[in-house]
Fold this protein.
Amino acid sequence: MIYHKGVASRLENAALHNSERIHIISQTGRWAVWKEGAKRASKIFDTREEAIAAARKLQSTKEHTIVVHNIDGSIRKVFNK
């Protein structure tokens, strides 16, 4: 996986704190919210922004790290709680 500057250290920090990760990924032209380890997406959205908003709601109820991906699968941004 391709990481942008500073993202790898934020992911390592999140792993040390045992937080669960939620990934926002491109899926057939739409954006999916995937909890790490799930067999399928929690929900599919038309825009990345809608998917991030939904993941933020999940993040507010539990300690999750949100990993937002680009269309090519590389990591665009990481949100830690």
User: Anything to note?
Assistant: The chain has one domain: 7-79.
